[in-house]
Design goal:
120 residues, 5 strands, alpha/beta, single chain
Length: 120
Protein backbone atom coordinates (compact mmCIF):
# COMPACT_ATOMS: atom_id res chain seq x y z
CA UNK A 1 0.00 0.00 0.00
CA UNK A 2 1.30 3.43 -0.94
CA UNK A 3 1.92 5.90 1.86
CA UNK A 4 2.35 9.68 1.95
CA UNK A 5 5.43 11.07 3.67
CA UNK A 6 6.49 14.67 4.21
CA UNK A 7 10.00 15.06 2.83
CA UNK A 8 11.44 18.55 3.28
CA UNK A 9 7.86 19.83 3.71
CA UNK A 10 6.84 18.25 0.39
CA UNK A 11 4.10 15.59 0.45
CA UNK A 12 5.33 12.50 -1.42
CA UNK A 13 3.40 9.32 -2.27
CA UNK A 14 5.77 6.39 -1.76
CA UNK A 15 4.89 3.20 -3.64
CA UNK A 16 6.00 -0.14 -2.23
CA UNK A 17 8.34 -2.45 -4.14
CA UNK A 18 5.61 -5.07 -4.21
CA UNK A 19 2.59 -4.47 -6.32
CA UNK A 20 1.14 -4.66 -9.78
CA UNK A 21 3.49 -4.17 -12.71
CA UNK A 22 3.14 -0.83 -14.45
CA UNK A 23 3.02 -1.50 -18.17
CA UNK A 24 1.00 1.35 -19.67
CA UNK A 25 -0.19 4.88 -19.00
CA UNK A 26 -3.54 3.67 -17.64
CA UNK A 27 -1.69 1.73 -14.94
CA UNK A 28 -0.56 4.98 -13.27
CA UNK A 29 -3.91 6.77 -13.23
CA UNK A 30 -4.83 5.33 -9.82
CA UNK A 31 -1.43 6.38 -8.43
CA UNK A 32 -1.88 9.90 -9.77
CA UNK A 33 -5.43 10.03 -8.41
CA UNK A 34 -4.24 8.79 -5.02
CA UNK A 35 -1.45 11.39 -5.01
CA UNK A 36 -3.84 14.20 -5.91
CA UNK A 37 -6.40 13.09 -3.32
CA UNK A 38 -3.71 13.20 -0.64
CA UNK A 39 -2.18 16.45 -1.98
CA UNK A 40 1.12 14.72 -2.78
CA UNK A 41 3.30 16.61 -5.22
CA UNK A 42 5.54 13.63 -6.08
CA UNK A 43 5.10 9.90 -6.59
CA UNK A 44 8.10 7.65 -5.93
CA UNK A 45 7.94 4.32 -7.78
CA UNK A 46 10.54 1.54 -7.51
CA UNK A 47 12.06 0.75 -10.92
CA UNK A 48 11.19 -2.92 -10.44
CA UNK A 49 7.48 -2.09 -10.66
CA UNK A 50 7.82 -1.13 -14.33
CA UNK A 51 7.36 -3.55 -17.20
CA UNK A 52 10.51 -4.12 -19.27
CA UNK A 53 8.86 -2.19 -22.14
CA UNK A 54 9.04 0.99 -20.07
CA UNK A 55 12.83 0.97 -20.49
CA UNK A 56 12.69 0.49 -24.28
CA UNK A 57 11.91 3.96 -25.59
CA UNK A 58 10.68 2.70 -28.95
CA UNK A 59 7.61 1.25 -27.18
CA UNK A 60 6.67 4.83 -26.12
CA UNK A 61 5.46 3.47 -22.77
CA UNK A 62 7.81 5.66 -20.70
CA UNK A 63 6.79 8.77 -22.61
CA UNK A 64 3.09 8.04 -22.22
CA UNK A 65 3.43 7.35 -18.50
CA UNK A 66 5.53 10.45 -17.86
CA UNK A 67 3.11 12.55 -19.92
CA UNK A 68 0.27 11.52 -17.57
CA UNK A 69 2.26 12.83 -14.61
CA UNK A 70 3.07 16.05 -16.48
CA UNK A 71 -0.60 16.56 -17.42
CA UNK A 72 -1.67 16.29 -13.78
CA UNK A 73 1.32 18.30 -12.51
CA UNK A 74 2.59 15.52 -10.26
CA UNK A 75 6.29 14.70 -10.18
CA UNK A 76 7.49 11.14 -10.74
CA UNK A 77 10.68 9.63 -9.37
CA UNK A 78 11.76 6.19 -10.58
CA UNK A 79 13.98 4.78 -7.84
CA UNK A 80 16.44 1.94 -8.28
CA UNK A 81 19.24 0.58 -10.39
CA UNK A 82 18.37 0.77 -14.09
CA UNK A 83 21.98 0.46 -15.29
CA UNK A 84 21.32 -2.78 -17.18
CA UNK A 85 18.81 -0.86 -19.29
CA UNK A 86 20.93 2.26 -19.78
CA UNK A 87 24.00 0.19 -20.69
CA UNK A 88 22.06 -1.33 -23.58
CA UNK A 89 20.56 1.93 -24.87
CA UNK A 90 22.28 5.25 -25.47
CA UNK A 91 18.83 6.74 -26.20
CA UNK A 92 17.60 5.71 -22.74
CA UNK A 93 20.80 7.07 -21.17
CA UNK A 94 20.18 10.42 -22.88
CA UNK A 95 16.50 10.38 -21.88
CA UNK A 96 17.36 9.73 -18.22
CA UNK A 97 20.00 12.47 -18.24
CA UNK A 98 17.54 14.98 -19.71
CA UNK A 99 14.79 14.01 -17.24
CA UNK A 100 17.18 14.41 -14.32
CA UNK A 101 17.98 17.98 -15.40
CA UNK A 102 14.36 18.98 -14.92
CA UNK A 103 11.99 19.36 -11.99
CA UNK A 104 9.26 16.88 -13.02
CA UNK A 105 10.78 13.46 -13.68
CA UNK A 106 13.80 11.91 -12.02
CA UNK A 107 15.53 8.55 -12.33
CA UNK A 108 17.50 8.08 -9.11
CA UNK A 109 19.51 5.30 -7.51
CA UNK A 110 17.79 5.34 -4.12
CA UNK A 111 15.50 7.25 -1.80
CA UNK A 112 18.44 9.07 -0.20
CA UNK A 113 19.24 10.60 -3.58
CA UNK A 114 15.57 11.58 -3.90
CA UNK A 115 15.69 13.31 -0.50
CA UNK A 116 18.78 15.25 -1.57
CA UNK A 117 17.27 16.32 -4.91
CA UNK A 118 14.07 17.41 -3.22
CA UNK A 119 16.02 19.47 -0.69
CA UNK A 120 17.91 21.30 -3.46
Amino acid sequence: MSTVQQIHDVPVLICPAEGEIIGCANDVLDLIGDAMYQDARWVVIPAGRFDEGFFRLRTRIAGEIIQKFVNYRVGIAVIGDISRHTEDSSALRDFVRECNRGRQTWFLADTEEFHERLKG
